## 1
Amino acid sequence: SSYTFEAVSQNHTIEVIFTKITYTITATADENGRISPNGEVVAEYGTSKTFEFIPNDGYMLDEVKVDGVVVEVSDNKYMFENITQEHTITVTFKIQTFTVTANCTFGGAINPSGEAIVEYGSSKTYTITPMQGYEIASIKINNKEVEKTTTLVLENITENKAVEVEFVKTKYTITVVCGEGGTITPQTQQVEFGSSITF
């Protein structure tokens, strides 16, 4: 960084041009998402550079490493501040998971019951079995009533879900037919399973 004029015997000029030092930040992501900007990113000395992490559909941020060390990030972004050396940044993504909660009232069973963790886009099958003398009154998914069935299939799950099954006692109809010359009371009735009625 120096130049020496020796045995000076005439006029001279000397000119020096400076340029900012630049550093390379190598940015990579796995196949389940991307990092922006990507590849070898050039940054000038003392500047800052922000990287954004964009997961593919059904994936979420898993881990970010800067120079081989795991770092915390917020809003799926990371900023290098006051850059004075070269860096690497790598990001990995993981598939999203959701919770499916299944419950039922007395009078039967849903299998499996309770909470289940499922991956994005997957399916989950439930078997609904009423006890003797009971039947399915309603099936609701996220408080929306769906068709009654003993085999419930949740397909392409992309959010948390709550499955609620309500059972009621089965009712039977006793039809009253009475000819002339007398009466029978009460008239035609619906009677719950296992109960008694007198005519």
Note: The longest strand covers residues 87-95.
## 2
Amino acid sequence: KGETANLLSEWLDPHMITTRAYSKPTEDEKERPYLWRFWRDLPARGTMGIFLSAWYSRPLLDRVYRRTSERRFEEQLHDIASFERTLRQDGALILKFWMHLGKEAQQKRLKTLESDPLRKWRVTKKDWKNWKRYDRFIDSAERIIAYTSRGGSPWKIVDGSDARYRSLTVGSYILAGIERHIQGTEQARAAQAVTDAEPESEPQ
């Protein structure tokens, strides 16, 4: 996903893109609601934000490693869905991508990186620990995708085994999404203009 994000910055105007990658929250962020740091980083109107390991990452990891209850997991998904609905109601376009790799393909990717002296630093013990829990990740991810694909921001599942296919698929989906969004916005404005121009009916 990092490689695809870098390509998007090459294909688009980087001055109009805010890119954020998240790890563990800081002590200051822990003192605030979970979604606060993402809200703080939202891009300005008319610009684009690319968020890596954003608001879905922690609920997914907590559920995979059994650090959260079933009930809390559902509450987190509900909060995220509400968060995204608020953004859509304010006019934001939300495009979500799940880069999928099969278990064998993921293992091959990790071994390939480890064998490269210049890239082996990218593979950590945590990566292999996560790989051993592959089935748990898939189960939890399927629930996340099913629950949060409602409304106007469904997930796009992308085969991540081929780098060119992955990046072209993401880029094409973004382009089509922006075109649809602009068209829908223009149609809504035109309809509102007609409504505003209509004379008010006189009271009976």
Note: The beta strands are 17-21, 48-52, 96-100, 155-159.
